[in-house]
Amino acid sequence: PAPVKAGPTRTLLQTLAVLPTAATLQGSDFRLLGANGAFAALVGRPRELLVGTDPVLLEPPVAQESSLAER
Q: What letters, b where the CB count within 10 A reaches 16 and e where it falls short, cover 7-30?
C-alpha cells in the first residue's frame, strides 16, 4: 500500500499508533488503512501485512459470511 499523505487520515494513524488498546482505521471499502501494535499482537500479524486487508478475513471462516452480510 502507498504511504498515507499528510492530512486527517495521517493524523488519525499517528494517534492510533500510541493507543494502548487494539485499534484499527478502516477505509470506505472496509480494508485496513492502519492498525496499532496492540491490534497486530492480538491477531498475531505484523502491522505492515495488515494494511490493505479486509479484517473479516481475520475471523474464523464460520463467522465471515455473517460479518459480510452485516455491512
A: eeeeeebeebeeeeeebbbeeeee
